[in-house]
Amino acid sequence: NINNNNNNNNSNHHHHINHRSSSQSKHSSSRSNDGDVGLTALWGLLNLSRWRTFQPSICRFGLYSLIRVVHGAKDPARRTIARAVLSNIHFHPANVTVLYKAELRLKYTALARLAEQRAAAAAA
Predict the structure, then answer these.
(1) What spatial distance separates the first Cα and last Cα of the chain, rounded to whole Å?
(2) Which domain holds residue 55?
(3) Which has the closest alpha carbon to 63: 14, 108, 102, 107?
(4) Using CA atoms in the order 79, 84, 89, 90, what is the torsion angle rounded to 10 degrees?
(5) Cα dihedral 101/103/108/110 (nearest 10)
(6) DSSP 3-state assignment of 21?
(7) How far apart are alpha carbons 6 and 51 in whole angstroms?
(8) Angle, to 10 degrees, between the axis of helix 96-123 and the axis of helix 55-72?
(9) What angle do CA 114, 84, 57 make, to 5 degrees?
(10) pLDDT of 8 strictly over 50
(11) What is the pLDDT of residue 29?
(12) Residue 123 DSSP SS3
């Protein structure tokens, strides 16, 4: 039984993207006749991310994968969908600590990379 009230569905803030985008149709048959499984999985994750019940699990187990898609995927549809999932899950109170730790970790990594680049440039 699917309960569609505010306890389970973050209806005030959820993102929904038109499933039939032109980017999807371009890329859907690039790997096989069955379509692009990765893109289909992202669509499914976006649908699940609209439900508050699933948001903590998505954050706990998929946060860094979603961040990698946002920053590294060549397909704009993948980046857009992953960004929408992240936007949906960030409203859940159970995700605050996980998201804060991820932010600190990503900032530290970026600063360390910048320091390495500066050191390499100074040595050259």
Answers:
(1) 65
(2) 22-123
(3) 102
(4) 90
(5) 150
(6) coil
(7) 9
(8) 20
(9) 90
(10) no
(11) 41
(12) helix
Burial of 30 (0-12, 13-18, 19+ CB in 10 A): exposed
pLDDT category, 103, cuts 50, 70, 90? very high
Residue 118 resides in a domain = yes
Which pLDDT belongs to residue 81?
98
More confident residue, 124 or 33: 124
Assess if residue 55 is contained within a domain. yes
User: When comparing pLDDT for 18 and 97, which is higher?
Assistant: 97
Instruction: For helices 37-49 and 55-72, give the axis angle rounded to 10 degrees.
Output: 140
In this structure, is residue 12 part of a structural domain? no
Residue 31 falls within a domain, yes or no? yes
Given a cut of 80, is residue 86 above it in pLDDT?
A: yes
Residues 6+ apart with CB under 8 A from 70: 79, 82, 83, 86
What is the number of domains present in the chain?
1
